[in-house]
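Sharing a chain and its predicted structure for anyone who wants a worked example. Both blocks are below, sequence first, C-alpha cells second.
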Amino acid sequence: MRATIGLWTIECYVSATRACHALVAPGAGCDCAYCRNWEALGSAAFPGHVLELFDQLGIDFRKPVEVYEVTRLENGLHLYGGWYHCVGQIVSGPERGWEESSPSGSRLSQ
C-alpha cells in the first residue's frame, strides 16, 4: 500500500507489518508510568483518522515502539508522544523536515 503522510510518500507492506506486530505483546512488557498511562488511554489517545491509518498500514495502536512524555500541561494532564513502526520504505520526501509537515496531509492509495 502506498500512503502520503505529511511530506512523505511511503510504500508499506501491510501483511509484513501485521505479522511483526503479531509477535509483540501489547505494552511490550514495559511497566513504566508513561507506558501504563498510554496503555490506559487505549484508542482514545488517537483521533479516528489516525486509527484508520494505523489499521490500513497494519499497525496495532496498542503496540508502540516508544512512548515518552513531552510535558505536563497546566491543567494537570500529560502530553505524550510515541513511535510506531511499519515494514516498508520511503518512496519520496525530504530527508529532514518532520517539524514542517502537517499530519492532516495524510492520503492513502491501494
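Comments welcome. The helical segments are 14-22, 33-41, 48-57.
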